[in-house]
Amino acid sequence: MQIVQFFRFKKTLIFLCITIVAIALLWNNILVRNKPSETYNEGVIFLRNKEYKKSVDSFYKVIKYNPEYVPAYVNAGIALTNLAEYKNAISLFDKALKVNDSEYMIFLNKGIALNKMKKHKESILVFEQGIKLNNKEPYLFNNKGAALGEINKHEEAIESYNQAIQLKPNYYEPHKNKFCPLYNLKRYQEALETCNRAIELEPDKANIYEVYTNRAMALNKLERYEEALEDAEVALRLVPNYEMALKAKEVAKRHLELD
Question: Domain coordinates of the chain in residue numbers?
């Protein structure tokens, strides 16, 4: 008799638990349905705080109850890109484009995800679609330049970076990024100058050590070894054991010792 009662109690408990969970889910769904803007804003805050998984969850809730709300698709895609879930991100950008194919920001973010997947040619085409919609957006030209550089189209990459700079002269990224195609084309003086400008614009940028390293490399090519050594040491103070800076320092020291 006691065993039967125990099983009955256990079944009742399971039923209650399932009911509580169902009510909780229903209540959560009602809250999202009634206050989608709050859920969306919550996702934006998570995204800004780099809590990408939480932000994706919030944006998915918004999408569930408003499948035509493009910002939720785009921001969820951005979060997934930061989580390196590029295919899922691109899927969301494509869904956003089905709702609205006249928004250049969707093409920008889809192109970035494609570029990170190393689908550089495809990403260039996507950036160009965005440029057709808005040819005044420097971020499209900067990212297109990065993709062109990846497939060794250095002249075209420089042109794209220059267009970004023309649209936004104080935009740090194209000044920094332009170094690689210039260096690869052995245009070392111009490579030096673009590093100078990047340092002027953002001396405290988190990745400024890369610019000092790049400038050291250009200075080495221009046989200005003392200056190259100084820049390499600045980079190494910021990021000890940074391999490229160590190599630039080694080249500069070797030539100075020979002199």
Answer: 206-259
